[in-house]
């Protein structure tokens, strides 16, 4: 309304004595028609802008809080896995260190936890380039199928991750409801990319012949050698 009134006033000033009630009516109707035609597109643009601003805010909160966690990454990694095994003791059977006598001090657990936490860090950094991050997450999701990871493990990992972040950030007063919400949204997004890849890879593995399985083992092991 304000823009429309300003437009009509400007045209009126420009036309001076030639400005009639008929012209006022014509310009008013024309403006309303233009407004009606543009309004849906404008609302969509505003919505896209809001989404972009929210995504930027989430990225900032996640990256800034992760920078604090990285200062003691290995310790947080062990806490993270110990929390997973507290929530779901059966998950321990998926790992090579399942028979460790003192699990929390196991070198194998420490090494694996450090690798996983650094992978999380790479994903956090990748929030600045989502298009590059997506295929990385898809590959990661697919790779976990051969270890027996199931879709129902994602909520467990998510719960353990949020708990670990709270333990690390809470004492410093950084773990606010806003930061928790940002991490929750980020994890949900990660799962939405990894889970379909995991399911598809599991389906392919189940359909493999012995020869296919042998070929897959050779290719996967060689990929590790090439690194």
Automatic annotation (TrEMBL):
Keyword set, alphabetical order: Cytoplasm, Heme, Iron, Metal-binding, Nucleus, Oxygen transport, Transport
The keyword 4Fe-4S is assigned to this record: no
GO molecular function, one term: oxygen binding
Keyword Ribonucleoprotein set for record: no
Entries under Gene3D superfamilies matching the protein: Globins
Main location: cytoplasm
One Pfam family linked to the record: Globin
Segments forming domain Globin: 51-199
Transmembrane intervals: none
Places the protein is found: Cytoplasm; Nucleus
Known partners and oligomeric status: Homodimer.
Family according to the record: Belongs to the globin family.
Name the record gives this protein: Globin domain-containing protein
């Amino acid at each position: 309304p304000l823009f429309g009134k300003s437009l009509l006033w400007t045209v009126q000033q420009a036309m001076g004595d030639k400005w009639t009630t008929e012209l006022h009516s014509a310009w008013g109707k024309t403006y309303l028609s233009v407004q009606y035609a543009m309004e849906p597109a404008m609302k969509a643009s505003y919505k896209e802008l809001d989404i972009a601003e929210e995504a930027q805010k989430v990225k900032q909160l996640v990256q800034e809080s992760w920078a604090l966690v990285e200062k003691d990454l290995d310790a947080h990694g062990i806490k993270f896995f110990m929390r997973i095994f507290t929530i779901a003791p059966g998950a321990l059977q998926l790992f090579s260190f399942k028979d460790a006598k003192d699990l929390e001090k196991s070198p194998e657990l420490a090494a694996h936890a450090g690798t996983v936490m650094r992978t999380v860090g790479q994903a956090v950094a990748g929030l600045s380039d989502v298009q590059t991050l997506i295929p990385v997450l898809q590959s990661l999701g697919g790779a976990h199928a051969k270890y027996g990871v199931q879709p129902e493990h994602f909520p467990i990992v998510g719960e353990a991750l949020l708990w670990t972040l709270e333990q690390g950030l809470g004492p410093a007063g950084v773990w606010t409801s806003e930061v928790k919400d940002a991490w929750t949204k980020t994890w949900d997004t990660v799962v939405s990319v990894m889970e379909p890849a995991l399911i598809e890879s599991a389906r392919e593995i189940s359909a493999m012949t012995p020869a296919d399985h042998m070929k897959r083992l050779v290719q996967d092991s060689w990929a590790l050698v090439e690194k």
